[in-house]
């Protein structure tokens, strides 16, 4: 195959291949979502429970559009596979570089080079970051600007056990412009908990402007990871939880605390324009408590809640929870397992 025609030939093929990534342990559910979307597929595990190679019986450009335009819940990241090389070849990186150097659309562009490596890969003993540096040096002939964010194109390289999988795509078609969809935030001094990262990621993933809200209700707020984030965004926050809030929040002038169960409080209709909930309770209890307090959320208001996936049938559970919220005048905008979610997903909803 002529290197110059590589990408076009793959994109015009009746089948396409992708490296797919989910949160650890949730790859089977991402595969099930893909089966529902495409009808049939072939898959091969690359990292147990997390990364798999999938063959879809759909041409690549259409397949990526079908996924990116209506994102799945558990599929965190995809990269197209346009070149496959045996990883133990002596000149494997030179082969890859020569192929990429012949792609006209990469010359002079802003590029993000993302390299990942499975633990059992035979590709040298180097780390993924060392492999990335090695690859970037070989691509100097592109006269490109290599960046981390806001790239024109992403060059994705995945070193599996015995194969090197390479693809070029637009960042939005990868579902995330972070390598593998692993969004990293730096922990701040005095940060109450890592739960704050969920809202930071939701802000990016869902395009929520938290600075646009005035009044927020945080259900199950203690110790205050989400409450602190909302206060930082300039909101007046009402926090509800029988447990204690972090001492750093107790005297905040924009915070009102109810040290009660959510079932014991009542608020004025349309009092809040944002409702959030990150309780470690069963989904059934969470839905009941949140829906009982929904009259206090104004029409057009936003809700962000997490669903704990507490049994072995998460797809059915998610459908039931979404149905319950839709019956309570909520329109689900996105349901997604964020990188910072563990055994849970995050719902982004608007009240109509």
End-to-end gap: 54 Å
| Computed CA radius of gyration, to the nearest angstrom | 23 Å
* Arrangement of strands in the largest sheet: 12-11-10-13-14-16-15
Q: How much helix is in the residues?
A: 25-40%
Strand content: 25-35%
- What shape does the CA trace take? elongated
Secondary-structure element sequence?
Answer: HEHEEHEEHEHEEEHEHEEEHEHEE
Low-confidence stretches: 1-12
Instruction: Return the structural class.
Output: alpha/beta
Q: Note the main sheet.
A: 7 strands, mixed
Determine the number of helices (DSSP H or I, runs of at least 4 residues). Answer: 9
Description:
The chain has 352 residues and is α/β, with parallel strands linked by helices. It is built from nine helices and 16 strands. It has helices at 6-11, 27-38, 60-68, 92-101, 128-138, 196-206, 225-232, 283-293, 314-327; strands at residues 16-21, 41-47, 51-56, 77-80, 83-86, 110-117, 145-146, 153-159, 163-169, 215-219, 236-240, 255-258, 272-277, 297-308, 330-336, 344-351. The strands form three sheets. The protein has a seven-stranded mixed beta sheet with strand order 12-11-10-13-14-16-15, with helices on both faces. The longest helix is centred in the last third of the chain and has 14 residues, at 314-327. It starts with 5 loop residues before the first helix and ends with a strand. Residues 1-12 have low confidence and may be disordered.
